[in-house]
Each structure stands twice: as structure tokens, then as C-alpha cells.
Amino acid sequence: MRDFYEDFSFIIGFMILCLFVLMAFGEKSERGFLLTTLFGMVILNADSVMTFFSEKFKVKE
């Protein structure tokens, strides 16, 4: 729970940044911003993502 409270300011800041992008540039730009953010998160956590998918989709021999 403590981690959530420590990261809560980042969450609020990100929401405000998304709102700013939406109001300044429109919905299409916000969608691109959010997709870029999501893609960056996947790249930065590539090891965890690969581990997750390898556990979920095992090849049965």
C-alpha cells in the first residue's frame, strides 16, 4: 500500500499530462501519445513480458 501512495503523485501527473495533450493537440495525438507510452513500457520491461508470454504459451511436446 505504501508503494501505491508513493507512486500516486506520478499517476496524477501522468493523467494531467494526458489531459494537456488531449486539450492541446486533440484525440488522435493523445492516442499516439498513449500508444508510445505503452510501447515504451513494454520495451523497458521486455524481460518480464517475455517471461510472462513464455509461461502462458508453452509448446506441448
Protein described:
The chain is 87% helix and 0% strand. It contains three helices and no strands. It has helices spanning 2-25, 27-44, 46-56. The radius of gyration is 16 Å and the shape is flat. The N and C termini lie far apart (42 Å). It has 61 residues and is an all-alpha fold. Helix 1 runs antiparallel to helix 2. The mean pLDDT is 89.
Draw up the topology in text:
Layout: H1 2-25, H2 27-44, H3 46-56
State the low-pLDDT regions, or none.
none
Beta-strand percentage range = under 5%
The number of E-state strands comes to: 0
The helix count comes to 3
Query: Which radius of gyration do the C-alpha atoms yield?
Result: 16 Å
Going by helix content, strand content and strand pairing, the class is mainly alpha
Instruction: Tell me the span between the first and last alpha carbons.
Output: 42 Å
| Average pLDDT taken over every residue | 89
One letter per element, helices H and strands E, the order comes to HHH
Q: Which sheet architecture does the biggest sheet show?
A: none
Shape: flat
Helix content: over 70%
